[in-house]
Amino acid sequence: MEIRRGFWKRCCAARTAALALGLSTWPAWSVAGEFDSLRLETRFSQVLTVDAYAAGDSLVDSWGTAESIEAPPPAPERERAFSDLKPARDIGRGLRVLAADARAVFAAPFHMDRGDALWTLGTVVVAGALYSQDQQVLDAVDRNSENQVLHAAIQPGRALEKLGFIGSTAPYYAAGLTLGYVMRWDLMTEMSAEILESHLIAGTVRNLLEGAVGRSRPRSGQGPRDFHFREGDSFPSGHASVVFEVATVAAHHTRSIPLRILYYTIATSISLQRVDSFSHWPSDIFVGAVIGTAVARGIVRRHAEAKRTAAPAPSAPPAAAPASTPVTRPAIED
Cis (ω within 30 of 0) for the bond into 322? Predict the structure, then answer.
């Protein structure tokens, strides 16, 4: 029994190691569902080979001798080399992912279920309430700008305001995408790609709304009801959208609850700073934050679902063969 238990533990460890090696070598762009099926099939067959004998079954020959079957060791996994990189292929895959995600985002309003409709209705109600009180809220923030609590809430946003400028941060995300791809750091590659993709898709939504609504900024002195088609650019807030996109992507890849709270706290502080600086009306901030969060959340969820779909389903070990009765060699009479 002790020999069988030890053999079971060793085989289970070998199976787990083989599966972990297979999963760790997937490229980041395979979130779209495209990957090297031949290599995956080879890895999966190795796992199945270990599974087949993980229970420590044995065969009994015609003379009653039990023979344990040793599982063949899995083939060693080759380290990924720099020569394995195929930029043209992976850029093509990335563009196809971007196109598919953009179609999904723009088609989402036409495929809402009851829950989505309720959330949308709630968002519209809150945005409408803020819109009706935009001037009053802005005046209240201005009057209490020296309040210690409000000052503490806005001060981080003042220091980190540039995080909301795509022109200032996009080169860093592009560098992170390139470095992560070359160094095979999948987490950096995936996060950088999702942030840039969120900026592109949400930015398109914002640009369409800004031109169509044409709302004047608070600093213009025209009030919250001043609209000029294709002239104003206050609604929605680009800063709020950008920082909430980053916070949503970062939170998705973070297990720590305190860190997730920190990401959204920083995003909220930067958004409040835009009201304090008379750059946007409160309703502009709210709608921008909703757009950024919704787009980024949709993208990371699609990518996570694509990875789950592409991952090999765990296979049940083959059914154990019926117990064999040892055969006793007949005695030979003289």
Answer: no
Q: Is the same domain home to 22 and 103? A: no
Residue where one domain finishes, among candidates 47, 82, 117: 82
Q: What pTM value is reported for the model?
A: 0.69
Angle, nearest 10°, between helix axes 134-143 and 282-310? 100
Q: Which of 34, 5, 55 is nearest to 320 (CA)?
A: 55
> Is residue 9 assigned to a domain?
yes
The answer to whether the beta carbons of residues 217 and 280 sit under 8 Å apart is yes
What total number of domains does the chain contain?
A: 2
Consecutive sets of 10 residues in the chain, 334 residues long: mean pLDDT of each?
Answer: 46 45 37 36 33 35 43 54 78 93 93 90 95 95 90 93 91 94 92 96 94 92 90 93 97 95 96 94 96 96 89 58 53 51
Instruction: Determine the Cα angle at 60 with ends 56 and 61, to 5°.
Output: 145
If asked whether residues 243 and 187 sit together in one domain, one would say yes
Write out the residue range of the structural domain in which residue 114 sits. 84-310
Nearest-5° angle of CA 205, CA 208, CA 209?
85
